Amino acid sequence: MHPLLHVFMLSDIPREQRFLTRFLKDWRNQLRAKWPPVKLSKQRAATGEEHELEVIQILEDQPYVGQRELARTVGISQSSICRIVKENNLHPYHNTLV
Question: Which Gene3D superfamilies does the record associate with it (predicted)?
């Protein structure tokens, strides 16, 4: 068989190494089952209801205002403005319903 076409097979691994690999995988899975990762849910302060209502109100009054200007006016980041616009099904550039 050509060396470049050789497929790495399980039988090519020495028996001791296969045992060790299997043992380590089982041990890792047992540890993961015992101590699941803790997910911290962080409340976003910038996309709270009061900021969201303020952004939507401004967009209703001035539909052609840019997101950068809107971010400066409200006092939150531009990415928060983008998130609010997207969550309310507004088009990100035209601020109209999709």
Answer: Homeodomain-like
**32 falls within a domain:** no
Ordered per-residue pLDDT tens for the chain, 98 residues: 445 445 555 556 667 677 778 888 888 888 777 776 666 666 666 667 888 999 989 988 888 888 899 999 999 999 999 888 888 888 656 555 55
| Contact in structure between 95 and 63 (CB atoms under 8 Å) | yes
Q: How many angstroms separate the most distant Cα atoms in the chain?
A: 74
Cα(31)–Cα(2) distance, integer angstroms:
42
Say how many domains are in the chain.
Answer: 1
73: domain range? Answer: 49-87
Terminal CA-CA length for the chain: 59
